[in-house]
Design goal:
Structural class of chain A: alpha/beta
Largest sheet of chain A: 6 strands, mixed
Helix content of chain A: 25-40%
Strand content of chain B: 15-25%
Strand order of the largest sheet of chain A: 6-7-8-3-9-10
Number of helices of chain B: 27
Number of strands of chain B: 24
Radius of gyration of chain B: 34 Å
Oligomer: heterodimer
Helix content of chain B: 40-55%
Chain lengths: ~220, ~800
């Protein structure tokens, strides 16, 4: 599904390139559940952003389902990720001015889904994540765990093939974190490919494969 | 999707109540202001278009080619026989309406009341040609019968109260006596945008039956009437110069022969002709007695657009300043698939929504301030969508344009955010980039420019009002006796006043001095040169009472009867213009002035300003020919409390002329009326200046609030490090003050240039002094510092621990 070849990413700091990713190669198969681990500054989030097409690599090749992402124009790329990729953030990043229902609905608006169909899809997801009762509340009225559930629901509403999660449990207590991980596991079992960045060994354990990053390179991989 | 945009827009607007309020308040004021000015412009440009036949109605005018050094000129006062001659001789003329506008106010007597109301006269087909709707009476019959009149609704109420006035009679003082007229119709009040105005309209045929009317019937040399011509639809007569020229040649063959004799004709071409101007052009064609210069309307609209622009800029700068708060939303929307286009649309929707709300409030404000605006512009505009059907789409278009102008820049800035940067809050959003700064500078440039202009107009106005006009204008009461039997009243009145020590002197003249008092002039050939001279009819006491200085010769003398036949007194300007000197002026004969007599100069007076200071002192000539009517009495009273003198005058008047109301004014106030239009400009520009500086400060208030929010952490750190409150206020204010100073530097030369142009219209004018710019600058800086300090002081005294803890 994903093939990264010799990907590098650097920022200019004081005239010298400062490498965040250097010569990184990675292949992800459909249906995998991958955890990315590593110390601060090792390039975990950057790698995730590159995979999510939110960030351009400075060099290397990126194939998504066989398409050469590095050769696509911005517009085509956004078409691609709009259709195939869902994001979950550590800070949830819900829109404060929208209700739970509306937050979940937003991606569908941008994909020009018809109103009646939208209703059915959102209702489905609300039901699946057992947050029907919360649909008219605003994000600030929810606990962190609930907000993250909404964030995941939003990421999944358009039925993406790939779910990217940047420390999804980072702001949650352990019980809430556990619930999110169980959810991920279930989703993975239903066929969604998941890549998550995490600091927690325990959460990494839910994945089928863990990639350890250090200084922008893959230090080691462990398979469960 | 659009409902989604509107929903989130409303939520955003209600969440940030303070900023929304500033935005809406500013935009509504700007829109209200612009709407009022636009209404004014619409009214001016729509003059006379409400007539059903407007496209086919023309007004006849006389056009003179440039000759004898005079510019080409047109005038629309026509001789009595022109209308009938046009209908008889020319193809395509359906109807003609001659009209005598009301000359001052006439005395109107009913059973128990005397009042002064203007009376106009028009041919009886008036209501067929023009679309003044009759509330009572039959349009075809209303003006039949020489003693029929039609009243406007307001006049009918004024005279007869609320009952139906049709069939009632009233007495109108025509030449010397009261005559009885019957009300045959009542029409709607005259719309504000009508050039044709009347209160009481009589039948023109009444005029033709009076003694003087009979003499004028076939006289092509006395021109006093507007002549309107209704043409057949599609007639090209108005553009057929040859036919119209032939008409002139036919009826003015004697004039042409005269001109030929004097060698004024180039070949056989007449320098004078009749022409037709479309009814719709009458109001704005200043070349032919037009009332309004379209240039002034455009200047007003430009000022109003400037004010609106300032309000729009507030929206833009505040939206950019607020973008930090919106960045996260933009980032998320992009991540979940929102394209740039949909984001731009979303923000534009928000702006347009705001502009719609503001427009609604603005319309309310405009409605509220309309009476005040009417007073300011001395117009009678109504907020009427039926009178101005174009108002609807103009307002809708205005709302959309304002929304797009105000919202487009923030929309494009916000939608260009990179999601990964804003979500990781790497992007530092200060809210004051170069663009914002330029906009704020522009706002203050406009406001300061208007304030400087106001000061200069006020200074010029004050200069003209207070400059010595060359005679003593203080402590003179002017009694208005126009339309009265003044030959009998004046001697009694002046005699009666002699016994009162409060009265220092009394004189009479045909005309008053000052605005709206009229003037008369005559042109004649003096030794082969064309001369134009203002002529004033006065009595021998006039020069003394007015304190006008005699430089040579003598004043008129009561005891020299010859003075009332052919003596004139002239001013220095006339002496210069006629090529005389002070020494030889006395005794000069004014050849060419009268048909059978040549008056002799008996005295020369020092120039005084009988016209406004915008004009140079022109040649002026005083006469006291026995036939003149002294309609104005000048009473010089003791300085001090004038009310006592007024009571005396009033009592004496009651004894002498109890049938006429006592009407008076003060001479200095009459003179101030010369400058009504300058006073109006001062008020309008001043208001615009005040509003724009208010709006600019409103924007500044919002920007200061945002700056404080964005710099909370910095302020906290500085305080912990020991900065004082003054230090911090200074740091926060200096950014804004700098912008105001740049605005000042740019506005100064620009406004100097434009106001210097404006001043060129005045023959006597001020020099623009440097302190005007300093004061305007100080005002702008002070106001802006005070505005900004509302937020900065609050931020500076706040406890730093609080602001740092949030990090």
């Amino acid at each position: 599904m994903i093939e990264l070849k010799n990907i590098s990413k650097y920022y200019n700091a004081g005239g010298k390139p400062n490498y965040v990713l250097s010569g990184l190669n990675l292949e992800v198969q459909k249906g995998e559940f991958i955890s990315i681990m590593g110390p601060s500054g090792s390039g975990k989030s950057t790698l995730l952003n590159v995979i999510g097409m939110l960030d351009d690599p400075s060099g290397g090749e990126y194939f998504f389902n066989g398409d050469a992402v590095h050769g696509l124009k911005e517009k085509q790329r956004s078409q691609l990720y709009k259709k195939y990729i869902g994001f979950v953030f550590q800070a949830y990043h819900l829109i404060d001015e929208l209700t739970v229902y509306e937050n979940i609905e937003t991606p569908l608006l941008y994909q020009d889904v018809k109103s009646s169909e939208r209703k059915a899809m959102v209702a489905d997801v609300l039901d699946k994540f057992q947050i029907v009762g919360k649909k008219d509340l605003f994000p600030t009225q929810l606990s962190g765990g609930q907000q993250q559930i909404v964030g995941i629901a939003r990421a999944l509403i358009a039925r993406p093939e790939l779910l990217l999660a940047d420390e999804p449990t980072g702001n949650l207590n352990s019980k809430q974190g556990e619930e999110v991980m169980e959810l991920f596991k279930k989703l993975n079992a239903e066929g969604v490919t998941i890549i998550q960045v995490t600091h927690s060994e325990k959460n990494a354990g839910y994945a089928s494969r863990t990639i350890h990053l250090l200084d922008g390179r893959i230090e080691k991989e462990t398979n469960v | 999707m659009i409902t989604h945009y509107i929903k989130i827009a409303i939520r955003n607007l209600t969440r940030q109540k303070g900023l929304t309020l500033i935005n809406i308040l500013g935009l509504s004021i700007g829109l209200a202001c612009f709407t009022l000015f636009m209404l004014y412009a619409l009214n001016e440009f729509n003059y006379d278009r409400f007539h059903k036949n407007a496209d086919n109605i023309f007004r006849a005018y006389r056009w003179r080619q440039p000759m004898n050094g005079e510019d080409a000129s047109g005038d629309s006062f026509m001789p009595m026989p022109l209308g009938p001659a046009m209908k008889q001789d020319l193809p395509g003329v359906v109807n003609f309406i001659r009209m005598q506008e009301s000359w001052g106010k006439s005395f109107i007597k009913t059973e128990n009341n005397v009042m002064r109301i203007g009376v106009a006269y028009a041919d009886p087909e008036f209501f067929d040609v023009f679309s003044f709707h009759l509330l009572y009476g039959n349009p075809a019959q209303a003006l039949r019968g020489t003693h029929s009149v039609v009243l406007t609704k307001a006049t009918a109420i004024k005279i007869f109260g609320n009952e139906n006035a049709v069939g009632k009679t009233l007495q109108i003082k025509t030449d010397t006596e009261f005559e009885s007229f019957t009300v045959n119709g009542v029409c709607e009040n005259i719309p504000s945008n009508s050039s044709i105005k009347f209160e009481i309209l009589g039948n023109y045929l009444f005029l033709t039956e009076t003694e003087s009317g009979k003499r004028l019937m076939n006289n092509w040399h006395r021109s006093a009437y507007q002549t309107y011509i209704q043409l057949q639809p599609g007639s090209s007569l108005a553009y057929d110069e040859t036919t119209l020229q032939n008409l002139y040649n036919k009826y003015h063959s004697d004039d042409l022969a005269e001109m030929k004799k004097k060698g004024k004709l180039k070949g056989n071409e007449s320098p004078v002709t009749y022409k037709l101007q479309p009814l719709r052009d009458i109001h704005t064609n200043t070349k032919i007695n037009g009332e309004v210069d379209p240039k002034n309307i455009w200047i007003l609209l430009t000022i109003a657009a400037g004010v609106l622009l300032i309000a729009c800029i507030n929206f833009t700068t505040l939206a950019i300043g607020r973008s930090a708060g919106r960045a996260k939303e933009v980032g998320i929307r992009k991540v979940v698939g929102g394209g740039k286009k949909s984001l731009v649309l979303q923000f534009l929707t928000e702006a347009i929504l705001l502009s719609i709300i503001s427009m609604l409030i603005g319309l309310l404000l405009a409605q509220l301030f309309l009476p005040w605006f009417n007073q300011l512009s001395s117009s009678e505009i109504a907020f009427s969508f039926t009178q101005f059907p174009e108002l609807t789409w103009v307002l809708i278009a205005l709302t959309l344009i304002v929304g797009v102008i105000a919202g487009s820049y923030p929309a494009f800035v916000l939608s260009a955010f990179k999601p990964i940067e804003v979500l990781k809050s790497k992007l530092r959003l200060g809210g004051s980039n170069f663009f914002t700064k330029s906009l704020v500078t522009l706002q203050f440039m406009l406001s300061v420019g208007l304030i400087i202009s106001t000061f200069i107009i006020l200074q010029q106005l004050n200069f003209m009002r207070s400059k010595n006009p060359g005679f003593n204008k203080e402590n003179v009461i002017v009694v208005d006796a126009s339309g009265m039997n003044t030959k009998k009243i004046y001697p009694l009145f002046s005699h009666a006043l002699q016994s009162h020590p409060e009265v220092k002197g009394v004189a009479s003249a045909e005309l008053g001095l000052g605005g709206e008092t009229g003037w008369s002039s005559s042109s004649f050939d003096y030794k082969g040169r064309h001369k134009n001279v203002y002529e004033y009819f006065i009595d021998p006491d006039y020069l003394h009472v007015m304190d006008i200085k005699l430089l040579a010769g003598r004043n008129f003398d009561h005891s020299i009867s010859d003075d009332t036949v052919h003596s004139v007194i002239v001013n220095e300007a006339m002496v210069r213009d006629f090529g005389w000197t002070l020494q030889n002026a006395v005794g000069q004969q004014l050849t060419g002035y009268g048909e059978n007599f040549n008056p002799v100069v008996i005295g020369v007076i020092k120039d005084f300003h009988f016209r406004p200071f915008s004009e140079k002192v022109e040649p002026q000539m005083f006469q006291q020919f026995s036939g003149y009517l002294s309609f104005k009495y000048f009473v010089r009273i003791q300085p001090g409390e004038p009310s006592k003198s007024i009571t005396i005058l009033q009592n004496e008047w009651q004894k002498i002329a109890p049938e006429f109301p006592f009407k008076y004014s003060f001479l200095d106030q009459d003179l101030d009326r010369f400058y009504k239009s300058e006073a109006r400009w001062a008020a309008i520009v001043g208001c615009a200046g005040g509003i724009s500086i208010f709006l600019a400060c409103l924007g500044l208030l919002g920007l200061a609030a945002l700056a404080v929010i964005n710099r909370t952490k910095e302020i906290g750190i500085r305080k912990v490090l020991g900065a004082s409150v003054t230090n911090i206020v200074k740091i926060l204010s200096i950014d804004f003050v700098r912008l105001v100073i740049i605005a000042l530097i740019i506005a100064t030369p620009v406004s100097w240039y434009f106001m210097n142009q404006w001043l060129q219209d005045f023959a006597y004018r001020i020099n623009i002094s440097w302190w005007i710019f300093v004061i305007s600058g100080l005002i702008a800086i002070t106001i802006s510092v005070l505005t900004v300090s509302i937020h900065t002081v609050k931020a500076a005294v706040a406890n730093p621990v609080k602001s740092l803890r949030t990090e």
